Amino acid sequence: MDYKQISFLMKDFIDETINFYEHMDEHRVSASANPRIGERIKKQGIPKTGRPLSQICRQMQEEILPASSLGQHPRSFACIPGPISLLSWMGEMMTGAFNPHGGSAANVPGPAAVEQELIRWMCGLAGYPSSAGGLFVSGGSMANLTALTAARDSRLVFEERDKGVAYVSHQTHSSAAKAFHILGFQQWQIRRIPTDSSFAMDVKALEQAIRHDISQGLTPFAVVATAGTTNTGSIDPLPQIARLCKAFGLWMHVDGAFGASILLSDWGQRLLKGIEQSDSISWDAHKWLRQTYSCSVVLVRKQAHLTRSFSSHPEYLEDMAGDPDQINFWDLGPELTRPCRGLKLWFTLQVLGQDQMAQDMEHSCRMAQAAERELKKDPHWEIISRPSLGILNFRYVLPGLSPDELDQLNQQMAAQVTADGYAQVLTTRLKGKQAIRLCTIHPDTCLEDIRTTIRLLKESPALQEAQSTHSISPHPARSRSCAPVISRQARPISAASMGRVSSPIQGL
Asked: In what side-by-side order are the strands of the sheet with 391-396?
């Protein structure tokens, strides 16, 4: 092993990466890979004789990694992007260099102490009692699976599982349905509760469904509420759902993969009131807490529920069992071998602090509100869902087009802007309409980014063609090449200047 060469190449990679991030807004958001990259990788295959290290590093930097969309870009508005902090990257590199096995505290007392402290802190933010606990997992899907396993084992005896019924909304993340499937439940055992005008779960419909299932001899056992839906950022009515779950003895799980991070702020605590009454929470740090993938947490009100579902003591682990009062994470979830995912989050929080994180989230919410104000300047824009946790849905309505044509038009507008590379914009379906969706959670997104993206949508070839076809005066023509890069001097709305007032929640 040539340690000097590794050192040289790693330093070069770090320098190039830092430079890349310093000039992030000059790069395309969408992937710009050679269309034949897959063919070349396949043809290259896996060699019997190794290739030079410098050659592989160069291929990674110049060919493979650039073939990725930049979810960490300030103009990545698609889905829920991952606007990482380089501090998280630093923490991950330092952790990976020592490759600690995070299954047992006896094996890694230092990293385990860090993860235990983070779990304690997050449980405290959620308002959980001292009996609470949890562990770091790969993502929201695994967090939901882990929590719902505990829900099944806590609320259903084995003989009742074929009668068990769980409740989600039409906006609940698909990972919940996947988790129930993995746990052995059939599709008919999952009730999809309608949502209200703000896309939050309809509590009256939920109660009616529960009572109906009980009257049919079924056994309701769990409700999955959401704190920040992927589509709209909506928050289900947590206090009301909690009261229903308590009344009927159901497990209340809150999918807070996206939205739970606002618990770091005072306004977030108000918005998520009722989450303290839940039985479990999923919470992704690789979303709004700016961590690299993967870094998620599952929290439970009573840690004993996880131990009941996942603890096992094979003979080959007896020497690693440690102190009986010491937590071994392999007893709390499906993974035996697991990385210490929490160290990078701890590293980031130690440097930035909670307040900076909260301010960045406030800025995100304000950017979505600013986008709504820009859209309202043109009556052709229809707001489908108002800003909620930095997410806004809208569409362009052109008179004379059928509903299907409008759906196609808005999908094409978003696709063309994304293909240009200036911003990444995707669509979703709400209220039977195809809507353009903006998720403005990057802390460096500025008002210029918002305004230019909206302008490019209005100047898209698809809209210009539709306007021409229907004899409507088109907007000034532009080429389909990428829009000119906009210099980012300073945020039009400074996160540092925002007070701890209710303004971030206006319009939610």
From this structure: 381-388, 391-396, 433-439, 426-430
